Amino acid sequence: MNSITNRFISLDLLPSFLPLQTLSVPSLQNVLLRIHLRQLLLLPKTPLHNTDPFVVVFVLGLIAALALANEQHDLFNQALKESEARGGKTWVVLIAGSTGWSNYRHQSSVYKAYHIAHDAGIPDERIITFFEDDLANNYENPFPGKVFNEIYVEGGNNINVYEGVVKDYIAEDASLDNLMSVLTGETPSSGSGKTLGSTSKDNVFIFYDDHGNSGIIALPTDEIFYDHHLTKVLNTLASKKMYKNLIFFMSACYSGSMFYKQELPENVYAATSAPTDASSYACLDDPTLGTYLSSCWPHGWINSLNTKGLDTDFGTIFEDSYNYAMSQPPPHTAPCQYGDLSLKNITFLEFMKNKPIHGNKKTDSSMPFVYDDTAVPQYLVPYAHAKKMYERKPTELNYAKFKAETEIRNRVDRMVNEIINQVLPTDKALYTPVCEMCDRSCPCYANCMRTGSSDHCARMCCDYSACTAADSKDEEQIECSLTLQRAFTDAIMSSDPTLGKHPYIVAAGKQWNRLCRSGVDVAKTLQAINRVCH
């Protein structure tokens, strides 16, 4: 009994009032259940009254420590259950799909959105980003290492929104495969490896900013995220129960076409910068940087949060962004909403914190907006940028760029007019520019009204856009327009990929709208598109 093992006591000597299940701290209990301590430690069966007093004190101290640990463990579990009952976490995915200095606005807005989410308490491990990362050190950047989301002011407080932004999927890693993996909770093949790890208790916020077209939105890798990809993402998120509430903001031309036929379940709310068949607008043309700093709609919702604070309800955020977009030069583009509109009652901060702060809160939506006379449709940005650069610096190089953009516009316009000529050669009004204002101030409408009705002239001369179809006739017209636009884009992409990637081909959508409202033969028009574009 003089060996070291004499200072240990057999489990047989533990008092009968301390059953083994009392030792319920998981790690300790598992050890005690699975290891035969007596064999391991060669413990003798020693009567308690003959046991060394040191051993008795040691055992009683051990028992007290285990009991205290067990109590603390129970309190921790109770607190954890209460926390889970109150709500889970929030995840944020931010995607900028474009590249190049002329598309500065898409990455700039995503960088700003990152800081807003971070300010709302979302840690980097739950913010996932996709972007090209070609602005901060771009050769055209007069402020290396910096990106701005507001007009640069000499000597002002110009905030560098690039600073601190987490980089997960950059350049070639910002691929379609990686995006699909992240949005469905699978492991990406490259990049940071972060993926959406949300559960049924978690909120998910997604912001996607880029160029779009009929049922498509782009990625930095020149790959296309189609509407059927979005359908797969939404179905997977629902089937895997990866959200409690999901809010999806998308800023792109034709962005409504990505959502208007989606069967969105409860607790999913989507807002888009444009309807099914219209362009988004670019804002904040900065003369110092020589590019547009934001698209109009994202600037509206970001400005709403900057001005009114993060504790602003989504209803007010959307109203502010809508009002800002509609305050810009005509013909404007009206943002759209889809899905569960009840989520608009939640404030941005409540959503990010994933816990109620108020009941239903409505923030005052009265807000002065500055008219931005530099705002243009996204498809005109390359042309507008080249024109302004030539006006500011009339060099041969700038003239060549302006001339190239003018030729692209003329080429696309000629192709569209030839298609119209082949399918409806007698309707001369269709060859004229689409009216920005549908009244007699527009030459097409004024000339048409000499012999036609207002309904006929509106169909022939004016633009039309819709968030959803009001009836079966609307549904047919929207589907007709989207079908022609997709076919036109695909045909040009196959014959001239460089032209196919140019934003100006989106401008053709206005003409397809008019054709479809005129009752054009879709099959005949598709044949004309193939003849003209190949």
CATH topology of the largest domain: Rossmann fold
Low-confidence stretches: 1-46, 79-85
Radius of gyration: 31 Å
Helix tally equals 17
Question: Largest beta sheet, briefly?
Answer: 7 strands, mixed
Structural class: alpha/beta
Determine the mean pLDDT: 83
Q: Approximately how much helix is present in the residues?
A: 40-55%
- What's the domain count? 3
Strand content: 5-15%
Tell the overall outline: globular
**Could you say what the CATH architecture of the largest domain is?**
3-Layer(aba) Sandwich
Span between N and C termini? 99 Å
Tell me the total number of β-strands: 13
Write the layout of secondary structure elements.
Layout: H1 26-34, H2 37-41, H3 53-86, E1 90-96, H4 104-119, E2 127-131, E3 169-170, H5 176-183, E4 203-209, E5 212-213, E6 216-218, E7 224-226, H6 227-239, E8 245-251, E9 268-272, E10 281-286, E11 291-295, H7 296-308, H8 314-326, E12 336-339, H9 348-353, E13 376-377, H10 381-392, H11 396-423, H12 443-448, H13 454-461, H14 472-495, H15 497-500, H16 508-517, H17 522-533
Parallel strand pairs: 1-2, 1-4, 2-3, 4-8, 8-9
Antiparallel strand pairs: 5-6, 6-7, 9-12, 10-11, 10-13
